[in-house]
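Please, structure for the following, as tokens.
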Amino acid sequence: MGSRGALWDKWGQDVPTTDWDWKSQPPMSAGKGMLLGLPGRWDEACFAVPAVRALEKSGLVGGLVLREEQADFWRTVSGLPQVLFSEKTGARKLAGELHGAWEASLVWEDGWAATAFAKAKILKRLGPEKTVPAKLLTHPLDVAEGATEHRVRLYLKTCERIGVAVDRPEFFAPADLGIPPEPGTVLLCPGSDFGASHEWILDRWQEVGESLRAEGRRVTVADVVGGRGLGKMLAERLGDGTKFFHAEPLARALPLLAVHELTVAADGSLPHLAAHAGSTCVTLFGPNDAVWKRPLGKRHKVVKRHVECAPCLSAKCLMDGRCQKELEVDRVLAAISHCKGLACG
């Protein structure tokens, strides 16, 4: 599974449908301590990884509650049993599956898991008091993010608040998928599921792609659900020899992300998954706060243009899109050049 060519031969150039040898899911067992309700957004899921690893290592946690489309992702993090839910499940049905089975629960956000834990009458329900409604918790935790802290600190501080150590390097390592990156490969993802304001100008993406190919790099283009189809348009512009795939579902695309030495992407869910899979990432930020929400890992690079109105965190620009329009190609290429020496390192 370590060869990029073998991956493409197996899956083709459309939606990857992997037969990757995932560890089989263990059955859900009742009465095993604490149940974790995991974040629904992909970026938040990646930020929660170090905390989940620390909690599993502590022995406090016996199971995970998560959205069914994230099941493959969380199997790269933890061997704990999973309870899966979808939009069709409903909090009441989920609560019925959990009732009487767990001594405690922990959530980081308001949502179906938090509601289901309350409906299931789990005796000790923990969560940060600033992100989860008090009515859903029995033990609200005084946990808050600092003004200049990365989002990962919310999850780590929660662990520290309940006495779980988080200072082990392996908690922050990329997933070990057993797929080494292929030298000279670059994945470009111009689309973002965070909104149009997070997407750079397509002509400039084309300049980057052509520059990389002129250097002899093997370029693949990905597209994501929720974007404007920029990935497909970029692949068509770059022409013959450009590999293209649609990264949906995202968790099943992890092997294709892992096999690329470098990923250059608009700020969105995909660069967080690519970083988790072990690719070195250059992420183009616009309205989002890079200090707060950059992909985890020191080897990654963020590129952004400072403008007066950013970070506005808006999915749709209310002004003139200057954070994207003023980001020059040379700045992006310089960041790529910097990361070439870090990729695979």
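Confidence is low (pLDDT under 50) at residues 1-30. The chain is about 30% helix and 20% strand.
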